[in-house]
Design a protein that fits this description.
By secondary structure, this protein is α/β, with parallel strands linked by helices. Helices cover 40% and strands 16% of the residues. It contains 13 helices and nine strands. It is globular and about 50 Å long. The chain starts with a strand and ends in a 6-residue tail after the last helix.
Length: 280
């Protein structure tokens, strides 16, 4: 049995589906109630309390671990408690969803914390793999409401891009790491096939919709004010640092999606076409 945390998210949903389609029993975990995968079960648990995960871990041989920023908040027991409980419960393989920033910006506060989780997985789990995606194509869903109501995308750094990765590709690589012994001990940095700017993403969404979408460039301060409504300020600033001034490593297209899946990563335009209903 495989446990998938973050099961209602953009990676967890397709990952659970892929594992179920592969004939594996899956237990999905999230903070809120959700449908269980076919042939599996869903449990509600808050990962800031590792003890809440114990019912899901009973009988599990593998765990997909997705972190959220509040797992490092004061008072939270932190990811190390989950890792220790998982291994004590008999989990042999842990696949961790980490961040490309661990390698490209290793000295930032957020990345230091995530790197510590990577180290804890390496030290505790008998088998492990680490998936480090760059920017998610699905971050464009932040613009969905303004596109629906005003035909507008408002974002900073309109002409600075990164090779955003389709969450379905992240899920497919994670599934391969959970199911295929060849990926034990692997560390995979995942990107899309090309650098695309916010203006380029806007154009791709407009093409998928078949209607014009305007682009308005925000200042960094304006973007920060909006982002801190949904994430810690440090995470927001770290994200804006990457979006505004990506390093050469963050601009590079990684070969790891193709290396694992045997095909090229999906382009943003394909993601936009597949998810066009969210913008209507």
């Amino acid at each position: 049995m495989i446990v998938v945390t973050g099961a209602t998210g953009n990676v967890g949903r397709p990952l659970a589906r892929t594992l179920a389609e592969a004939g594996r029993k899956v237990t999905t975990v999230s903070r809120h109630a959700a449908a269980a995968p076919e042939g599996g079960r869903h449990l509600v648990a808050d990962l800031t309390d590792p003890a809440a995960l114990e019912p899901a871990l009973a009988g599990a041989e593998a765990l997909f671990l997705l972190l959220s920023g509040d797992m490092h908040a004061p008072g939270a027991q932190g990811p190390a408690g989950i890792i220790d409980r998982a291994v004590a419960s008999g989990v042999r393989r842990i696949v961790l969803l980490s961040s490309q920033g661990v390698s490209t910006r290793p000295y930032g506060t957020t990345r230091i914390a995530v790197r510590a989780v990577e180290d804890a997985v390496r030290e505790a789990a008998p088998e492990w793999a680490i998936v480090r995606p760059g920017g998610f194509a699905s971050n464009a869903l932040w613009w969905a409401e303004s596109i629906r109501t005003s035909g507008l995308v408002a974002a900073p750094f309109g002409d600075t891009g990164v090779p955003v990765v389709d969450p379905d590709d992240i899920a497919a690589v994670a599934a391969a790491c959970l199911l295929d012994d060849r990926h034990v001990g692997g560390v995979y940095e995942l990107t899309g096939p090309e650098v695309i700017t916010p203006r380029g993403q806007t154009a791709a969404i407009a093409a998928a919709l078949g209607t014009p979408v305007r682009f308005h460039e925000l200042t960094r301060a304006e973007a920060l004010a909006g982002m801190t409504q949904v994430m810690p300020e440090q995470v927001a600033n770290d994200t804006l640092d990457i979006l505004g001034a990506p390093t050469p490593a963050e601009l590079a297209v990684s070969p790891d999606v193709e290396r694992v899946l045997g095909r090229a990563p999906r382009a943003f335009a394909e993601w936009a076409t597949r998810n066009v209903a969210a913008f209507r």
